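User: tokens in, sequence out, please.
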């Protein structure tokens, strides 16, 4: 694991020249942001240190070209994406400039796992058509197995339209760049910072104060796992030392029993070096057999690592490479030296003439003292390991007993998404029909939907203001997280409503006066002891619809751990969402009895509502909060339209948002892109 994740270079040509690129936000709470497409084009045009900068965002799509609908993990990519990585497809080609343009031919490059699963590694797949979200795409290439650390099924050109290139607040791209030969990361960062300062002068309203973040792609992918893997490696090394000490003690005891034999050899002319050599040959033979057996077992078990450690970045899967074999050989030799040479050296220090005279009776107190030292060392290392394991178990226990602010024990969640360029009315009717059927299903206590689930590493953050107070005393604006939810969602999650009421029962694309709820933390921080129910809240920096209506605060909900299980609840806004307002939803159902039995009833209902869609990501309550945090991450960010939109995974400030009837822009998110969408005609609309 250490070799594959930390030591092995990334599987790209000159991978040390690859870096991740993000925008540096002036916000203190969220210092990094994704990249807007217009700014990405400017960086490519104005920099002097990169061969190219490309970007992507995630989009899960439903493939209906097979016998059964299948949910695919996809990514939309900017022009030059594959060229930046420098990896050639194993079959076919990557995208042409025409296919990268808005309105260009629809093409797709598929991943190795999908090619194997669906097409049985047939080279004839190039040129075939696949139906993704109801649209036909021509497969033009197949990427090798080790191209991505995650299992991406399909890559599609982003085909960003010209109007979106002009909206500099629409940040949804996760960037990657290839530096020119001889250029360092610090030099590349300074170059992009210079470019961004020039853009700040050219676009002061949107770019002033912003900069760039450049990091090694290798470090960006494995950095968060480094401490954990090194800790585990250290624990394994200590366990090896305990075993070495134990074996050394056994060998010393065995050599003490052979003292008369060694004395006889010495008396007939054998030197001490010859006696040590004979002993070490025996020990090295045993060590070699042990290393060979260990490598054979490791080669047999290494395939299981891919199934157990699914989140570790291991391009091409875990492999028993030459570095791992060399380490095993060196560790075997070192263990043999510690186990054999030191005990043998100690055993041959004795007065052999005295041993012959005593006929092998007894042993010296010095050697018994040496054995006691080995035992003491073993005990010390064992206590250290047990203490570390105890601390880890305590951390896991604390994490597993965190107050989530809700009771998910009887909750079922699943994902049944739609593409952003599908007809919103039809999608809204499907969402409405699904909720109605779920509400009428026996055993269902409540049902609802949300754009993102709690503890899913997906956070939209907006700047808002309370209309009645107009400003906060400190900053004049409030930065808050946001969720878009339906009626019944909070009840289905087992979250309390502390004051006021739930969201109203909205119908497809309904446009009543907009309403929202806030959480208790929001009320405590910004209510200043006042009752916020009935007051109004509006979004700041609304570049799309500056005249959008303010939302009435209908209620105050409890504090859910929205950002992560190990992150304390912050201020959150829950915007009441009508069916059709957000196509790619997460559904939440609360069972009155056993969630396991209800899950089996939900699956056919979803299939009956729309047989062309593939529900995915089923999660059932009754597990620990740690399990809740392991659900598939969902996305963030944003340009959402009447028929289309974009979003990407994150956790940064959003600096623009559209209002009811026109649209909304989310500018800023963190982390890698997970699930997004966006295609023409790009009519910007959000219904709340």
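Assistant: Sequence out:
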């Amino acid at each position: 694991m250490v070799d594959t994740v930390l030591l092995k270079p990334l599987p790209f040509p000159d991978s040390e020249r690859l870096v991740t690129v993000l925008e540096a936000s002036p916000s203190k709470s969220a210092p990094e942001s994704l990249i807007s497409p217009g700014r990405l084009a400017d960086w490519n045009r104005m920099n002097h240190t990169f061969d190219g900068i490309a970007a992507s965002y995630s989009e899960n799509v439903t493939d209906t070209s097979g016998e059964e609908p299948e949910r695919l993990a996809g990514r939309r990519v900017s022009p030059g994406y594959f060229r930046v990585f420098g990896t050639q497809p194993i079959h076919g080609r990557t995208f042409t400039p025409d296919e990268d343009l808005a309105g260009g031919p629809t093409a797709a490059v598929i991943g190795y796992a999908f090619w194997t699963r669906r097409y049985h590694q047939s080279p004839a797949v190039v040129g075939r058509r696949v139906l993704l979200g109801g649209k036909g795409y021509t497969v033009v290439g197949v990427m090798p197995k080790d191209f991505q650390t995650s299992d991406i099924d399909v890559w599609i050109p982003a085909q960003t339209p010209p109007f979106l290139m002009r909206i500099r607040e629409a940040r949804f791209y996760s960037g990657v760049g290839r530096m020119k030969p001889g250029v360092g990361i610090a030099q590349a960062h300074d170059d992009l910072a210079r470019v961004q300062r020039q853009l700040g002068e050219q676009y002061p309203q949107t770019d002033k104060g912003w900069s760039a973040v450049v990091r090694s792609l290798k470090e960006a992918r494995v950095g968060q796992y480094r401490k954990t893997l090194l800790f585990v490696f250290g624990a394994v090394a200590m366990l090896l030392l305990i075993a070495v000490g134990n074996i050394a003690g056994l060998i010393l005891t065995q050599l003490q029993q052979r003292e008369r034999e060694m004395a006889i050899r010495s008396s007939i002319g054998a030197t001490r070096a010859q006696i040590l050599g004979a002993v070490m040959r025996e020990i090295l033979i045993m060590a070699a057999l042990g290393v060979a057996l260990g490598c054979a077992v490791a080669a047999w078990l290494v395939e299981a690592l891919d199934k157990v450690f699914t989140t570790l970045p291991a391009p091409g899967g875990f492999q028993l490479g030459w570095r791992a074999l060399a380490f095993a050989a060196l560790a075997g030799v070192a263990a043999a030296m510690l186990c054999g040479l030191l005990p043998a050296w100690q055993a041959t220090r004795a007065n052999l003439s005295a041993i012959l005279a005593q006929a092998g009776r007894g042993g010296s107190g010095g050697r018994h003292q040496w054995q006691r030292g080995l035992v003491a060392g073993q005990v010390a290392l064992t206590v250290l390991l047990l203490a570390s394991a105890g601390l880890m178990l305590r951390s896991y226990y604390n994490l597993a007993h965190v107050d989530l602010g809700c009771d998910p024990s009887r909750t079922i969640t699943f994902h049944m998404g739609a593409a952003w360029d599908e007809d919103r009315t039809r999608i809204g009717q499907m969402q409405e029909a699904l909720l109605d059927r779920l509400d009428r299903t026996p055993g269902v206590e409540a049902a609802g939907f949300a754009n993102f689930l709690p503890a899913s590493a997906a956070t939209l953050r907006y700047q808002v203001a309370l209309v009645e107070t107009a400003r906060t005393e400190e900053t004049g604006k409030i930065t808050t997280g946001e969720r878009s939810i339906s009626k019944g969602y909070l009840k289905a999650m087992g979250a309390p409503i502390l004051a006021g009421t739930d969201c109203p029962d909205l119908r497809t694309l309904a446009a009543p006066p907009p309403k929202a709820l806030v959480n208790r933390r929001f009320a405590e921080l910004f209510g200043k002891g006042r009752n916020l129910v009935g007051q109004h809240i509006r979004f700041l920096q609304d570049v799309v619809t500056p005249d959008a209506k303010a939302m009435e605060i209908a209620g105050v909900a409890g504090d859910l751990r929205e950002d992560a299980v190990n992150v304390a609840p912050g201020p959150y806004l829950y915007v009441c969402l009508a069916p059709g307002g957000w196509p790619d939803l997460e559904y939440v159902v609360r069972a009155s009895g056993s969630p396991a039995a209800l899950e089996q009833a939900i699956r056919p209902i979803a299939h009956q509502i729309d047989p062309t869609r593939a529900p995915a990501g089923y999660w059932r309550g009754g597990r620990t909060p740690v399990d809740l945090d392991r659900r598939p991450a969902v996305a963030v960010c944003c340009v959402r339209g009447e028929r289309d939109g974009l979003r990407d995974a994150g956790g940064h400030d959003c600096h623009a948002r559209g209002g009811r009837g026109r649209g909304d822009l989310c500018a800023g998110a963190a982390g890698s892109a997970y699930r997004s969408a966006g295609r023409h005609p790009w009519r910007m609309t959000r219904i709340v």
